[in-house]
Amino acid sequence: MNDWKLKRQILKAGSFLLVLCGLLTAYLFYVTAVEGDELASNALNPRNAAARADIVRGSILDDKGRVLAQNRPDGSRSYPMGPSMAAVTGYNGDKIGSAGIEGHANRELLGLTADMTHMGPISQLLQSDRGNDVKLTIDADVQQAAYDGMAGRRGAVVAVDIDTGAVLAMVSSPAYDPNNIESEWQTLSKQEDSPLLNRAVQGLYPPGSTIKPMIADVALTEHVTDPNEVFDCSGVLDVGGGMSIRESHGEVHGRVNLEQAVTESCNVTFGTLGMRLGDEKLKKGFERFGFDREIGGEVLMTKSHFPAFGSLSQGDQAQTAIGQSSLLVTPMHMALLASAFAHDGTIMKPYLIDEVITPGGTVVHKTTPEKWLTATTPEMAKRIDGYMEEVVTKGTGTAARVSGIRVVGKTGTAENPAGKDHAWFIGSAELRDRRIAFAIIIENAGGGGIEAAPIARKMILSLT
Amino acid sequence: MKEKSLLMAPLGILICGFGVLLLKGQTFAVPSYLHWLPAGGAWLAVLGIAAIVSLFLYYILHHIGLDTDIYVIILTLASIGLTEIARLKPELLVPQVCWLTAGLIVFFLVIRFWRPLRSLLNYPYLLGLACIVILGLPLLFGTEIGGSRNWLVLGPVSVQPSEFGKILIVFFLAAYLSSHRRVLTLPARKILFLRLPPLRFIAPLICIWSLAVLMFVVERDLGSALLFFGIAVLMTYMATGSKSYVFLALLFFGAAVVISYLAFGHVRVRFDIWLNPWQDPSGMAYQVVQSLFSFGTGGIWGTGFGYGHPGFIPEVHTDFIFAAIGEEWGLVGSLAILLCYVLLFWRGIQIALTRQGDSEALLAAGCASLVLLQAFIIIAGVIKFLPLTGITLPFISYGGSSMVSGFILLGLLVSLSRKERGRSNE
User: For residue A21, which residues of chain B lie inside 8 Å, CB to CB?
Assistant: First the structure.
């Protein structure tokens, strides 16, 4: 009998099937383990979005616990403060992505405490079906006062706590309404005044005269002048090459010292200082105040645009010292500059997220304020702060005056190629229980003292 | 007893699976014909009956001295199937339990009436004819469900004749090949490098191959066609050991594939989807692409039972149930299931090796191979290893025909595990 032959053939055919299963196993391993991550994150894969949708997104709260964003029972997101808080909350949409705190604190809002993509079923133990609440440093009153003050004009307002770096207000105008951003997306993204841009941290503007307190600091630190030197302002400064710098409105300041030059915002004096400082010292000064640095995280401040230091003409040096030429800065940075002089020369790192709170009320994250940089010495800071006080008490910034509260500041009226001058006001205020610094810019609005300074006053009043 | 503890596997799967679903607040609807049962617990009562029947069967098998390993593996697969159906289509749970119970009863009947069934092996041509008739039925009276014209609608129930035809094919092949082994292995003629017997001996084989191709083209049932063809080639090789047949068969099938690719649109679409699903990921290739996403999202450990989103795949509870397992149970779970089929197969091959008669050995090997081959084809289709085919995952997918036919197959296999008392070879 060839019985054994049949069995050998059965075994052979069986082994062939097992080899096929082996190949199948290898391919299964390839699909799940090798290509798995790519397939899981494929844009056409609706599973991640569906898993997110299973979680009730946490709320965004202001510093007093007022709701800035929360989920409705039907799963849609509501933003009670609408456009006035848009620069802070941002938005979150399936098709349009996310921005602001909604984007930055996405993981916290969804309660994803760690990267659990490879933990399999274990991750379900750590995942709750409701995300965490995120409590911000923003004060809804200050934010609203600032937004109202803008009255729809283009520009930005920033207010920070000097001692901690906590951002109290961050307004960008014109704003969008995050409540219906998905339906308005097409219009918004094409609109010429770019409402989707967060001007407070991403907008780049010539600082104009608001840069002068810093130039005064740099000039004194570099010993190119001293507080007692008297400058003679004839209204025009010849910067060589047939170019000259003029005072605005054809003013003539006459004989002024540095303090009076800040108070009167004397272009001739600061143009002179700029030329004395030269490229290298100017650049060093800007770097000392962090203008070459950006801030990541939830604040997302972009770094400044510098003129081409190293190849500037005398005219460019003078222009840079009065905040013109091609120098461009963000409003957030100008608020930080103002805070340096009020805070003994150090700048605290700005932050928006104060606490992350679980649905059970446990605080799982609390931000500890940290120093960003030391810009100048306490003595120098005190001196410049004094100069800036004069601006508000009897100079160009009297519109920011609030009785009973010490307010210091510096106005700016920045020339720009787009049309009318940008109105600037930066400064700080000592309230009863906290000290704040702020920066306000209104695009093409004209004089900083008249247009921008009143918004500072409104913000201060909203805090008292 | 050590063997009895194996029953803990299906029991544990059921308890854990249903525990998770009940904790998540899942409820199971009961079809109207069972409304006389207490509401709320009806599904549990039906499940209990199935459990009692299955335990009872276990003791019968044990008592007569038949193989119980295969039976436990089927119960494990079936319990995985039940938990998956309960998770994916809760309203189909009770019908599926009913089908499972029906399968168990049929399984018992096959074992009980094994002797008359066995005598069928003496009538190969009758088997062949029955096979052609059953498979031919949908060609004439078939109804199209889910893109394949392979259903017969008989009043309230729809039957897939191919599910039962496959058993007949195995029966036929075992009977025909064993009685013609010697003739088929005679190298009567030499054509090129192929050694082939006279045409009249291989004609029945060619007939079966053609039937498979016909199903493929006319009924659009690529899965069954592959299955039939595969089992025919495997069993022919098992019986004859001749590579010439394998070569001839592959040549035949290859030609059929090329011709149908050129001639028929739906075949072309199937292959194009397989070759590049990313050309039309939200259209024609939607199912396959979503299935791949399932496996990718599941990764090695899966998302956890009840925490995935298998609902994005159409027909996930039947043909694509393996994708749902891949998503929620991960690679680990998928491989465990594949291992179950391999163990089942291997146990079947062991049984085949102990049989003394050619036809019985071939029948056992054929039954075992058929189950593994079917699992292989559908898993391969779901993960895009092969072009997608519409067949069920044995014992796991939802479906009455496939459940009952699976139990018939394994009833045959288990019957063959009966100890032979020195019976002479026939």
Answer: 338, 341-342, 372, 376
